[in-house]
């Protein structure tokens, strides 16, 4: 039973805007240019129609378990990296660790989290799965140090984000004046090496010379952690990442925050299905995660039917931070309930049973 404080959270959107400081709301909501890709990434899921089957025995519990790079998740979704949790709550990303731990799903704190990774690792419960998100630093030794530390702290995989060679054009942030003061506040007291990291320094610190060959470097520096390459947006890059020994792909346009009018995650998934179906064949060694615009249980189920092993969400969890860990947990429970309902109404009782026969994606395939 949730405390009354989260009673207003009844679905994953729209955000409780009145409860947010303007700058956290704007930073979390922000997208590139006029936000077309961010919008479409959400709305396009409704273009895929479900094909429910009836008169099947769906009495009893539904098994929602899945595996992400070898680690079990109790639910087929996880929490994406997003920077600056302290803009919305004094404990910042610690709330996400606690919420993810309560519901048994993986969480990948941002490389630019506003809480130090050693404190996040210390807050995790035994057996809890945390992944380490990396933006490759121009001074490579800093990334090497962070990767070695991540391994030591018990992070179980690296999420290598590759879609931020340079930052996108986030106009909402410019309008509301997300300034260096707010950034400094969010990162206050967080030492990373000699540096206090801040998103304002993203452009200055991210190495734009990273290539597929660096996947091997990440593996070496992290002493063999599996690598999920986040920000794959076409079949060619999916194949190159796999050839370079990626253990998983996160099909993602960074929540529409990088290049506007880029494909939606659903379209990327369909492109892989069409041109490289072997990448999606389950059970496969490769983990496919779909990230961006997931807001309903039916969205989750559609991605799973089309070959994803799991999906990942950022904004709903970031907005929930104003309610602390209870908000994070409640967002996950709402989504869990919706996934269970959708699956029972489709006539299935486990993630494994979901397949393309439960959807009609022709409208989007024609795009
Ligand atoms: C992000 N995202 C992101 N990704 C990443 O790899 N490292 C990061 O530090 C951040 N920071 C970040 C901040 C905020 C406020 C947002 C909203 C997003 C991208 C994120 O991981 C994810 O790809 C998208 O946000 C997913 O889309 P939804 O679920 O937010 O629609």
UniProtKB/TrEMBL annotation:
Residues of the active site: 254 (proton acceptor)
PROSITE patterns for this protein: FMN_HYDROXY_ACID_DH_1 (PS00557), FMN_HYDROXY_ACID_DH_2 (PS51349)
FMN hydroxy acid dehydrogenase domain mapped to chain residues: 1-364
A UniProt-annotated Pfam family: FMN_dh
Keywords: Flavoprotein, FMN, Oxidoreductase
PANTHER family hit by this protein: CYTOCHROME B2, MITOCHONDRIAL-RELATED, S -2-HYDROXY-ACID OXIDASE-RELATED
Protein name (record): Putative L-lactate dehydrogenase
Provenance organism: Rhodotorula diobovata
The organism's taxonomic lineage, starting at the top: Eukaryota, Fungi, Dikarya, Basidiomycota, Pucciniomycotina
């Amino acid at each position: 039973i949730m405390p009354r404080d989260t009673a207003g959270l009844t679905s994953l959107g729209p955000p409780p805007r009145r409860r947010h400081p303007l700058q956290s709301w704007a930073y979390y909501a922000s997208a590139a240019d006029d936000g077309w890709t961010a919008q479409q990434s959400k709305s396009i899921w409704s273009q895929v129609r479900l094909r429910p089957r009836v008169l099947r025995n769906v009495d009893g519990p539904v098994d929602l378990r899945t595996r992400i790079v070898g680690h079990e998740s109790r639910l087929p979704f996880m929490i994406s990296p997003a920077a600056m949790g302290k803009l919305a709550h004094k404990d910042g990303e610690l709330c996400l660790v606690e919420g993810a731990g309560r519901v048994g799903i993986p969480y990948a704190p941002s490389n630019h989290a506003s809480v130090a990774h050693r404190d996040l690792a210390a807050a995790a419960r035994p057996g809890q799965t945390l992944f380490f998100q990396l933006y490759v630093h121009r001074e490579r030794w800093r990334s090497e140090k962070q990767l070695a530390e991540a391994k030591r702290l018990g992070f179980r995989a690296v999420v290598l984000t590759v879609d931020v060679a340079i930052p996108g054009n986030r106009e909402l942030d410019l309008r509301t004046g997300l300034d260096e003061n707010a950034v400094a506040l969010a990162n206050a007291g967080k030492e990373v090496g000699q540096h206090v990291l801040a998103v304002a320094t993203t452009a200055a610190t991210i190495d734009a010379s990273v290539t597929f060959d660096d996947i091997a470097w990440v593996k070496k520096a992290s002493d063999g952690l599996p690598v999920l390459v986040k920000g794959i947006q076409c079949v060619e890059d999916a194949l190159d990442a796999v050839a370079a020994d990626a253990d998983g792909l996160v099909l993602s346009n960074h929540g529409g925050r990088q290049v506007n009018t880029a494909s939606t995650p659903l379209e990327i998934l369909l492109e892989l299905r069409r041109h490289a179906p072997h990448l999606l064949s389950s059970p496969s060694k490769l983990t496919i995660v779909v990230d961006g615009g997931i807001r309903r249980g039916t969205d989750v189920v559609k991605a799973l039917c089309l070959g994803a092993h799991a999906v990942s969400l950022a904004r709903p969890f970031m907005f929930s931070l104003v309610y602390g860990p209870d908000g994070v947990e409640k967002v996950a429970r709402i989504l869990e309930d919706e996934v269970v309902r959708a699956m029972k109404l489709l006539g299935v009782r486990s993630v494994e049973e979901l397949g393309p026969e439960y959807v009609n994606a022709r409208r989007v395939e024609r795009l």
